[in-house]
Amino acid sequence: MSEMTQSPRARREGRLDDPSVDLRTEPRLHPGLRAALGALGMDGHAAPPPLDRSADPAAVAEYVGGAHAAFEGLYAALPTEWPGEAPVAVSYRTESVRGVDGNDIALHIVRPAEAAGPLPGLVYVHGGGMTILDADNKVHRQWSRDLAATGMVVITVCFRNAWTPHGTNPFPAGLHDCGSALDWVHEHRADLGISAVVVQGESGGANLALATALEAKRDGRLDRIDGVYAMVPYISGGYGWPTDRKLRELPSMVENNGHYIDCEMMDLLVSVYDPTGENAENPLCWPYFATTTDVEGLPPHVITVNELDPLRDEGIAYFRTLQRAGVPVVGKVNLGLTHAADMSFRQAVPDAYRATVRDIHAFARSL
C-alpha cells in the first residue's frame, strides 16, 4: 500500500506516544504551570509508591499519612498572590453541625462583607481522594474566598477523611457528612440568605459532590440541590486496573500517568476509602458506575476535566452518562493543565483560575 493510500492513524499523545515523556518534555503543558512545577521540582514523572495495596494496612496508612503531609506542605508553599490585586472584603464564621452518624461537622461560611439580598449558595467539598488534605488549608481558604468575592455564600464542609492520624473513616463516612451538611444548608437557606444551592468540588470533592446528588435522588431529597459543579472528578476507583482495561475504558490513565499525580498512589487512597473492595462498583462510592437510570432527573451539572490529567477520561465518561439520561449538563476540557491546576495553582495559571471562578459563579447565578 502506498503512503498516500494508507489508512490514517489516530494521533497518540503523552505517554501513549512516548512512555518516557514527563512534564519537562510534555509539549502540551501550559508554560506558566511548567515554570511553577519546575521551581518546585515537580516537573518530572511523579514517583510511584514503594508499596501497593497488598502491603500491611499499617504500612499503607503510614504511606498515606506521608502523602497527606506532602500535599499539605505543597499547598502551604504555593504562591497565590496576583500583582496589584485588591481583595474584596469577606466575612467568615464557623458552624458546628451534628451529622447522621452522631459526629460533629465544622462548616466554614464565607460571604461578601457588603453584599445585600439573596445570593447563590455554594457547598464546597475539597479534593484529596476523599482520604487526605484538610478543608481549612491555604489553597482551600483562598478558593472559598475567591468564590465568595464574586457574590456567593460559600459553605466549606470539613467532612471526615478516610485517613486521619487517629484512625480511618472509610466510605460512606465522608459522604454522610456531605449529606448532613447539605441538609443543614437547605434548612437554613433563609438565615444564610441564599437563593440556590450548588454543590461544588474538585477531584475527590467532585466524587462526593456527584455522589451527594445521587444519594439525594435515592433518598427523595433532591429539593436540597439546584446544581452540581464537578471539577476533575476522581470517580472510577480504577487506578489499579490492568493496563489493558485502562486502555480500553479510560486511556488517560496511561496517557497522563505520572503527570503531577500517579495511578499507583491513587490506588492506595482507594484501598483506604474502600478497604474491602465491596463497593468497587457502587455508584455512591464510585460515581463512574452510575447508570442512566441512576442519574435521570438530577439537577443541572457542569463537568470539567483537564487535558493532562490521568482522571480526564472518567470525567468525560460521567458527562456522557448524564447526557444520555437527559440531565442538563455542560462539559469542558481545560487544555494544557494537570490535575486541578485551575484551582490550586492560582499564581501560575491566573487566566484559567479566574475563568473557572467566573464560570462557577455564572452557573450558580443561572439556577
From TrEMBL:
<dbReference type="InterPro" id="IPR050300">
    <property type="entry name" value="GDXG_lipolytic_enzyme"/>
</dbReference>
<keyword id="KW-0378">Hydrolase</keyword>
<feature type="domain" description="Alpha/beta hydrolase fold-3">
    <location>
        <begin position="122"/>
        <end position="340"/>
    </location>
</feature>
<protein>
    <submittedName>
        <fullName>Acetyl esterase/lipase</fullName>
    </submittedName>
</protein>
<feature type="region of interest" description="Disordered">
    <location>
        <begin position="1"/>
        <end position="28"/>
    </location>
</feature>
<dbReference type="GO" id="GO:0016787">
    <property type="term" value="F:hydrolase activity"/>
</dbReference>
<dbReference type="Pfam" id="PF07859">
    <property type="entry name" value="Abhydrolase_3"/>
</dbReference>
<dbReference type="InterPro" id="IPR029058">
    <property type="entry name" value="AB_hydrolase_fold"/>
</dbReference>
<dbReference type="InterPro" id="IPR013094">
    <property type="entry name" value="AB_hydrolase_3"/>
</dbReference>
<feature type="compositionally biased region" description="Basic and acidic residues">
    <location>
        <begin position="10"/>
        <end position="28"/>
    </location>
</feature>
